[in-house]
Amino acid sequence: xxxxIASAILLAILVFGSVIxxxxxxxxxxxxxxxxxxIPEFPVTAQTVKLEDWTPHLRAIGFxxxxxxxxxxxxxSGKVVKIDFESGQKLRANDPLVYxxxxxxTANLKAAQGRLSAVLSNYKRMNSLFTKGSVSQGQVDxxxxxxxxxxxxxxxxxxxISRRIIRAPFDGITGLRNxxxxxxxxxGTDIVRLEDVSKMRxxxxxxxxxxxxxxxxxxxxxxxxxxxxTTFTGSISAIxxxxxxxSGVIQVQADIPNTEQKLxxxxxxxxxxxxxxxxxxxxxxxxxxxxxxxxxxxxxxxxHLDDSxxxxxxxxxxxVKLGKSKDGAVRILEGLAEGDVIVTSGQVRLxxxxxxxxxxSDILNKPAEIPAL
Length: 373
What we know:
Helix content is 25%, strand content 41%. It is of the alpha+beta class. Among the domains are: 41-56 and 278-358, conserved putative lor/sdh protein from methanococcus maripaludis s2 fold, CATH 2.40.420.20; 58-67 and 196-274, Elongation Factor Tu (Ef-tu), domain 3 (Beta Barrel), CATH 2.40.30.170; 102-163, Orthogonal Bundle (Helix Hairpins), CATH 1.10.287.470. Strands 3-10-13-12-11-14 form a six-stranded antiparallel barrel. It has a five-stranded mixed β-barrel with strand order 1-20-17-18-21. A four-stranded antiparallel β-sheet has the order 7-6-4-9. α2 packs antiparallel against α3 (137-163). The longest helix is centred in the N-terminal third of the chain and has 35 residues, at 2-36.
């Protein structure tokens, strides 16, 4: 019995010992394999940092408005008897648009003008008799007052008739006509929209911190969705003298030539205010920058030698301070120097000390046409 137990214990020791030995042998082989395995190299694209001239832009948004625009309406009520314009017509200043019924006023004017000759003759006669001593000064004054009152009445009738002819206040293009022959118009009825589109304006806001960067006459580029392939040029024409104390912004106005009449009032527009050019700046693609809660970094590539003397590229993060961005590029204020080699794409899988291999790729090149969705 004792011999059997001893044999069983010996067998158990041999079995467990072999398992433990196999596992130790396996671990040593794995360790040997990992030690001899080549370090993986991740494919990336890279770029050498160069100094470039940088023309920063101050971006803003706003709405296009005409240099002059008004909804034409009538000052007095009356019936429309004649219309002298069509929708979308070009007009000159003082061109008549709508005639309102003025028969009563015209008749009153004729009656007053008919009395003018007699009243004027009476005034002249009274002056002549006064020089001869036949009438008093009071009679002359009465004749003069009657003449002046009649002349004022005639001017009043003429002004009333003139107000019943609605005219264009300036050169421009009409919109859609809202009235028809025979309509009775109450005072203030909207007749048509008239706009001078020879020059347009863009009204936008900028933060008060950027107020020292703008000035009257400063050039700017304007972009509208209706003309995606066209860049409109303009210049700042006015700056509001006061900053809005609630929002901390200030209103700015820019004039935009519109010789081809592509711009229309009400269009949403984006503007790039062109600032002074800064020479010899470090500019990198925005894709090279890693944005995190702890700051912005780029991967800097440096060349090293392994134990066998073979060279390899190693990537290490470098903290950078960013300036303004423009057209897919960003200005680096601190953290990089001329000649540094940085990763521009493929850094998602990288960590400090990772080995990389630089490849050529056109993935960052902008396509000639953006595919439609």
